[in-house]
């Protein structure tokens, strides 16, 4: 059966979209509880496709995916264990910050007082407790992303799926949010699956990186990032950090070359 503490299993997964695009081929990976695992790969290699499958958004055409030993769709329908954060914060413009975070809790019909306490707690975690009444149009890109993360955390998920959440942010905001995300990950004991094509971001955040090859996406290599947490921004000047960046870049280049060969 499954590996101990396994929370996600990609079992020789293939995905061919209608129209014939082969996005994933024989993608095989086991994710362990509590990991911060990044999917790193060139554009179009199937990172989002793989992540979306974990959330039950799209099914494998070969092999299968299981999440907490269940089919992803069952997990999403029956539990709040999985939350998804996209690159676009997707906030409702007519709802203020607090009400945006409360929305999924309202939809689940929970106790109003408890829901509000939860929303306030997660908004404090992301540093927005002084902006509860602000509307999305009054927020910067970084603040919108913080609301989106808070909304995902409000459900107390066991696993957070993040698809290039910081891709549209400026470098300083991106670094601040990376630090905050690591704090949250450690506080909440979650598993995080994170999609990026940024090598520095992958090395800074991850306990393990899954490097993917150019389309059709396969798992090209797995790199354990053996740098202790908590990680400060200064870790980027550490020679070991630079070595990991070089290593991941090499793997990325090799996996991208494969496209031209094959
Ligand atoms: N719904 C869809 N229908 C048809 N083809 C799709 C669909 N979604 C993705 N694809 C194709 O599948 C391939 C993989 O896409 P995917 O978005 O998973 O890659 P990615 O690695 O996340 O890319 P990027 O880094 O550019 O976001 C691409 O060629 C894409 O055009």
TrEMBL record:
InterPro entries: AAA+_ATPase, ABC_transporter-like_ATP-bd, ABC_transporter-like_CS, ABC_transporter_ATP-bind, P-loop_NTPase. Residues 8-235 form the ABC transporter domain. CDD domains: ABC_NrtD_SsuB_transporters. The keyword Cell cycle does not apply. Pfam families: ABC_tran. One of its GO terms (molecular function) is ATP binding. The keyword Nucleotide-binding applies. It comes from the Bacteria. Keywords: ATP-binding, Nucleotide-binding, Translocase, Transport. This is NitT/TauT family transport system ATP-binding protein. The lineage of its organism: Bacteria, Bacillati, Bacillota, Bacilli, Bacillales.
């Amino acid at each position: 059966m499954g590996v101990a503490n396994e929370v996600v299993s990609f079992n020789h997964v293939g995905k061919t979209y209608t129209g014939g695009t082969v996005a994933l081929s024989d993608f095989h990976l086991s994710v362990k509880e509590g990991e911060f695992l990044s999917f790193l790969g060139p554009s179009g290699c199937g990172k989002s496709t793989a992540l979306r499958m974990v959330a039950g958004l799209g099914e494998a055409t070969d092999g299968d995916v299981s999440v907490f030993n269940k089919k992803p769709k069952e997990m999403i329908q029956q539990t709040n264990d999985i939350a998804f954060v996209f690159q676009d914060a997707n906030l409702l413009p007519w709802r203020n910050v607090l009400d945006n975070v409360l929305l999924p809790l309202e939809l689940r019909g929970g106790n109003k007082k408890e829901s509000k306490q939860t929303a306030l707690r997660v908004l404090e975690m992301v540093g927005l407790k002084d902006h509860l009444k602000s509307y999305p149009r009054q927020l910067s890109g970084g603040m919108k992303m913080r609301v989106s993360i808070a909304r995902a955390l409000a459900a107390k998920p066991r696993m957070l799926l993040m698809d290039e959440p910081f891709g549209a942010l400026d470098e300083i905001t991106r670094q601040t949010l990376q630090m905050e995300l690591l704090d949250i990950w450690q506080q909440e004991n979650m598993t995080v699956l994170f999609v990026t094509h940024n090598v520095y971001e992958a090395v800074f955040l991850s306990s393990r990186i899954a490097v993917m090859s150019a389309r059709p996406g396969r798992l090209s290599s797995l790199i354990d990032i053996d740098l202790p947490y908590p990680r400060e921004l200064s870790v980027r000047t550490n020679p070991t950090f630079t070595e990991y960046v070089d290593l991941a870049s090499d793997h990325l280049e090799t996996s991208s070359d494969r496209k031209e060969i094959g």
